[in-house]
Amino acid sequence: MTPEQLVRDHTIYSCVMGSRAFGLATEDSDTDRRGVFLAPTPLFWRFDKPPAHVEGPAEEQFSWELERFCELALRNNPNVLECLHSPVVEHADVLGRELLSLRGAFLSRQAHTTFVRYAGGQRRKLDADVRQYGAPRWKHAMHLLRLLTSCRDLLRSGELRIDVGDDRDRLLAVKRGEVSWPDVESWMNRLQDEADRAHATTPLPDAPDHARVEDFLVRARRASVLALLEADPDDEVVQRAEGTGLVR
User: Along the chain (248 residues), what's the average pLDDT of each consecutive run of 10 residues?
Assistant: First the structure.
């Protein structure tokens, strides 16, 4: 089974990300798609495991295998958490809808560390551009401001919202280079300070609900075997799994 087939035939959740999900799309914006696929469980019984992620098959498309996706989400990886909170969902089967229902189980106070660490790396790149070229990459500056705003609001409310709402016009002005770099820096510093203060009183739990997520993953793996058994009850590998009790 090729990586492209895994995405095509076993995707449980897919959404649009990037500017179209953030409320920052313009006429020339690409359509970035992200997804989660559930590799058939018997593929993990071989030495050659299925891929943890797949790029494509379409342009601007990237998908994670469910286990890898859950691992990253439990670490409060910003890109993965935002994928779960996209307002533009294109596909969600039964398992995909259950994954969406688990959004709150992944969130924790750890988001402060992961979001701020990622933002810090992006900030250093912008500072390097300013030193070398006299100006940052304005589109990247816009998205860093958006990320810091999401981080602050997540820590304040306990909920992740990725649409920029009323900040759209101001952020697009940054993208066009219409806001001075000192003003952008001041905005970033203010958001960083507000996120740090929100961390002290955030309603988020100290840790994600690892047990709840793991229970979902185990049931998804079991459902994969049951589906194969129903499709081909005479398959020797599936029968052997049934005999061990793995699919009960």
Answer: 93 97 93 96 92 92 97 97 97 98 97 96 97 96 97 97 96 97 98 97 98 97 86 60 52
Say whether 31 sits in a helix, a strand or coil.
Answer: coil
Give Cα separations from 70 to 64, 65, 103, 233 (angstroms). 9, 9, 10, 30
The SS3 call for residue 7 is helix
At residue 46, the 3 state secondary structure works out as coil
Altogether, the residues listed in the chain come to a count of: 248
pTM across the whole model? 0.89
Tokens of residue 195, six digits: 């996120």
How many angstroms separate the CA atoms of 13 and 82, rounded?
13
Q: Say if residues 90 and 11 touch (Cβ distance below 8 Å).
A: no
What is the Cα–Cα distance from 243 to 84, expressed in whole angstroms?
36
Whether 71 and 97 share a structural domain: yes
Number of domains in the chain: 2
Peptide bond connecting 87 to the previous residue in cis, omega within 30 degrees of 0: no
Cβ-based neighbour number of residue 145 at 10 Å: 22
- Domain with 182 in it: 110-201
Tell me, yes or no, whether 32 and 99 share the same domain. yes
Task: Indicate if 85 and 17 belong to the same structural domain.
Answer: yes
C-alpha angle 161-143-151 in degrees, rounded to nearest 5 = 40
Q: Do 137 and 179 belong together in one domain?
A: yes
